[in-house]
């Protein structure tokens, strides 16, 4: 028997890329994964196009592999993901050592593409096939895995925010069939998974069909997953405010397995900017939505995404964003300096001066960090369920997460990965909590 070839995958961007990388590695049968590019037979970069820096990283990373390729011309180099979709064959023109370019909706064709590049040809596929790539991928392997997993249920976006490339790189909204998702979820649970995060670029726009023709919304899908024995925690991300339906909000109050954490990007607190961003919600409608969500689940931790320095953002617009952050009291936040993306409507508009945008970003991040710590501190003295994910840095220590997604370190903990136990929170440091097992 010949020994398996080695595959090195590097993943950039969002959680959906993390999931896709797992599936691509599984699709490339005959390869086993390696952590070092030096001994790989194939290097695959799963890329992100969301901001200019993210896209440029790909070319600098490729440059680093040049000596490897020069030394071993048989080494195959592939670019997958959103830069592949956005730039296609241009990548091979700019970096001729690239053998393969595959867009996010075409990676079920990877095995054929791999066969082609082995003959010395180049392979390029950035189609948006109407058939669902997941249906063409082989069944997932049965190997044991860790206690948490991602499961993509929805892809693509129809929202066309004025700054964003995702509708162009991932295509229109598509939902996977209900039965496929349930089968995959059961399978993950059999392999040791206790927590599943349902993924979609617009996950709460999920609208899937069962084999019997029945329909399911995200809330209905969650209730079906709720019935799987051994699955203890359900999360979903990322949601758009306009797709937060009453039944989904209600599920946060009534479904015990649905964790009290919601990532709900707002981007800006200024109505003028929201309108120019084509967000189709206002500051007020967002605030009212948060109020309804907290009525259903008062302790829910809300996280958000924010963009500073969007074209023509004034000091007042920025102040409005800081203000909505205070008003919502976000417990977690991801903030970005606006990056003009070719082909998006906002890229045509006058930019805010870089130094001004930098200062706004710092101010916003300081505010979020402050709120995040204050909310984390409210956990002190409480007893919370923790799902243990992996050993900590120190002997006998385990790291797990609370329902609010705070990391907790527990000393003298002899529980295995995947165990859920009651923990009393005794310390709150910068980005995590420390606790002790209750009744021990
Ligand atoms: N589908 C998700 C995630 C989109 S990308 C959603 O709708 O929320 C993640 C975040 O990147 C966005 O929420 C936005 O805050 C940020 N982002 C997207 N395009 C950007 C751009 N051109 N410049 C800066 N940040 C951007
Ligand atoms: Fe991009 Fe807006 Fe779609 Fe999110 S909702 S992926 S920010 S276009
Ligand atoms: Fe990036 Fe594509 Fe995800 S652009 S954020 S990898 S959908």
Automatic annotation (TrEMBL):
Its EC number(s): 2.8.4.3
Subcellular location: Cytoplasm
Keyword tags: 4Fe-4S, Cytoplasm, Iron, Iron-sulfur, Metal-binding, S-adenosyl-L-methionine, Transferase, tRNA processing
Entries under InterPro entries matching the protein: Elp3/MiaA/NifB-like_rSAM (IPR006638), Methylthiotransferase (IPR005839), Methylthiotransferase_CS (IPR020612), Methylthiotransferase_N (IPR013848), Methylthiotransferase_N_sf (IPR038135), MiaB_methiolase (IPR006463), rSAM (IPR007197), rSAM_horseshoe (IPR023404)
Catalysed reaction, written as an equation: N(6)-dimethylallyladenosine(37) in tRNA + (sulfur carrier)-SH + AH2 + 2 S-adenosyl-L-methionine = 2-methylsulfanyl-N(6)-dimethylallyladenosine(37) in tRNA + (sulfur carrier)-H + 5'-deoxyadenosine + L-methionine + A + S-adenosyl-L-homocysteine + 2 H(+); N(6)-dimethylallyladenosine(37) in tRNA + (sulfur carrier)-SH + AH2 + S-adenosyl-L-methionine = 2-thio-N(6)-dimethylallyladenosine(37) in tRNA + (sulfur carrier)-H + 5'-deoxyadenosine + L-methionine + A + H(+); 2-thio-N(6)-dimethylallyladenosine(37) in tRNA + S-adenosyl-L-methionine = 2-methylsulfanyl-N(6)-dimethylallyladenosine(37) in tRNA + S-adenosyl-L-homocysteine + H(+)
Domain TRAM residues, every copy: 377-439
Superkingdom of source: Bacteria
Coiled coil: none
Binding site for [4Fe-4S] cluster 2: 157, 161, 164
Presence of the UniProt keyword tRNA processing in the record: yes
Residue positions binding [4Fe-4S] cluster 1: 14, 48, 82
PROSITE patterns reported in the protein's UniProt record: MTTASE_N, MTTASE_RADICAL, RADICAL_SAM, TRAM
Main location: cytoplasm
SUPFAM superfamilies, sorted: Radical SAM enzymes (SSF102114)
One term under GO cellular component: cytosol
Function per UniProt: Catalyzes the methylthiolation of N6-(dimethylallyl)adenosine (i(6)A), leading to the formation of 2-methylthio-N6-(dimethylallyl)adenosine (ms(2)i(6)A) at position 37 in tRNAs that read codons beginning with uridine.
The protein's assembly and partners: Monomer.
Name the UniProt record assigns to this protein: tRNA-2-methylthio-N(6)-dimethylallyladenosine synthase
Protein species of origin: Lentibacter algarum
